[in-house]
Sequence to fold (84 residues):
Amino acid sequence: MANIIIYSTAHCPYCAWAKQLLDKKKVSYQEFLIDSDPDKKIEMERLSGRRSVPQIFINNQPIGGFDNLSALDKSGQLDKLLTK
Fold:
């Protein structure tokens, strides 16, 4: 099973949509709320090079945000990543 990390904030609709998509896939993920943990915000920016949320990583590979996750799902590539 894939190792999934999502950096998010408490009131971000894109974060909620990303988590809903992952929940629909019945995969577990570790979530870090960067609005309540400044160290995780710094970590997210260092790892992704981005400041926007969500930032999603699958098996340490930066995926990007919800739009990227959704595009992977529509192309069939997300299921392949989730089974690695």
Q: What stands out?
A: The mean pLDDT is 96. The CA atoms of residues 18 and 66 lie 5 Å apart.
